[in-house]
Specification:
Layout (H helix, E strand, L loop, with lengths): L1 H45 L14 H9 L3 H14 L6 H27 L2 H50 L4 H10 L8 H13 L4 H12 L2 H16 L3 H38 L1 H25 L1
Helix pairs in contact: 2-4, 3-4, 3-5, 4-5, 5-6, 5-10, 6-7, 7-8, 8-9, 9-10
């Protein structure tokens, strides 16, 4: 009987300890999750150039995975620039890319491993799984980088036309806000990509964000150095009351000169590459054509001498 009472008390104590320990464990897990969410939100707020839209805040599976697995600030900054260059500006965009990269790598790795295991041996399956993971892990980043690069090139081509249009409207007597509103309402074939950013700029002004903040956000949306410089120029002109016409003309001339210098550098690089290609692929056949007959006669002469 005493042994039974002791066993019951031991079991009861163990259950109580298990209950208390499980509650403590659940509480600690919740605290860790809250801490991680708080850190991720603080990272969103503290990131440089935190001019982020309030869109796409629904999260999503990929964003949740990215927030749970990504801690490198340099990686987040890189992904933020990529996503901003593609036209997405919310705080969760870099985490979304990180989640897509990880989930895509795991999914392709598992699929490749399973298919190869069904059709071939274990060694081939492992190699196929690793290759699938590499493709799924690296593919989204490089694809979005190419999309971002193409968008930046379009904006770089459209920006000089935008400056000329603004200069024409300002000279005709319109204010800079009226000029922006006019460009959003008119059909301009040369502003296909920038027009969307102008509409967001006008919406920011209508929402009462102020000219300085609205122009800063617009420069961040352009995602090119010339766009940020142009927005800073407009902010300086509005803040200090300087003449906007002359500032636009000087910036336009500076931008044209930069494009000319970049074109000259590109031409110089292409000439060097063409020279290397010519040396590798054109000089050997040319030497064969020129020196071939002489070498053939020399071989024939040596053959005759040896035979004689």
């Amino acid at each position: 009987m005493p042994y039974m009472i002791a066993a019951v008390l031991l079991i009861a104590g163990a259950l109580i300890l298990l209950f208390v320990g499980s509650n403590v464990l659940v509480g600690e897990v919740r605290n860790i999750g809250d801490t991680r969410r708080l850190r991720s939100r603080m990272a969103d707020v503290s990131r440089s150039d935190a001019i982020l839209d309030e869109e796409h805040e629904g999260g999503g599976f990929f964003e949740l995975v990215g927030r749970a697995t990504t801690r490198s600030q340099s990686t987040l900054n890189e992904f933020e620039q990529i996503m901003r260059s593609t036209g997405r500006y919310d705080a969760g965009a870099p985490y979304w890319l990180a989640g897509v990269r990880l989930v895509g790598g795991i999914a392709l790795g598992v699929i490749g491993f399973g298919v190869a295991l069904f059709l071939a041996k274990m060694n081939t399956a492992i190699l196929t799984g690793v290759a699938g993971f590499a493709i799924g892990y690296l593919g989204p980043r490089y694809y979005l980088s190419s999309v971002a690069k193409a968008r930046r090139r379009r904006i770089e081509r459209e920006l000089p036309f935008l400056i000329d249009m603004l200069l024409l409207l300002v000279r005709s007597g319109a204010s800079i806000e009226q000029a922006f509103r006019h460009l959003t309402q008119e059909e301009a074939d040369g502003l296909g990509t920038i027009k969307g950013t102008l509409e967001r700029l006008v919406n920011d002004i209508d929402q009462g964000k102020g000219y300085e903040v609205s122009l800063q956000r617009w420069g961040a949306r352009l995602a090119i150095d010339e766009g940020r410089e142009f927005s800073a120029l407009l902010i300086q002109s509005l803040a200090h009351g300087t003449e906007l016409t002359s500032a636009l003309k000087i910036f336009s001339d500076t931008l044209i000169e930069r494009r000319m210098n970049a074109a000259r550098m590109t031409i110089g690089q292409r000439m060097t590459q063409l020279t290397v290609v010519m040396m590798l692929f054109m000089m050997p056949p040319l030497l064969i054509v020129i020196a071939g007959p002489a070498v053939s006669r020399l071989i024939e002469g040596l053959t005759k001498v040896n035979g004689g």
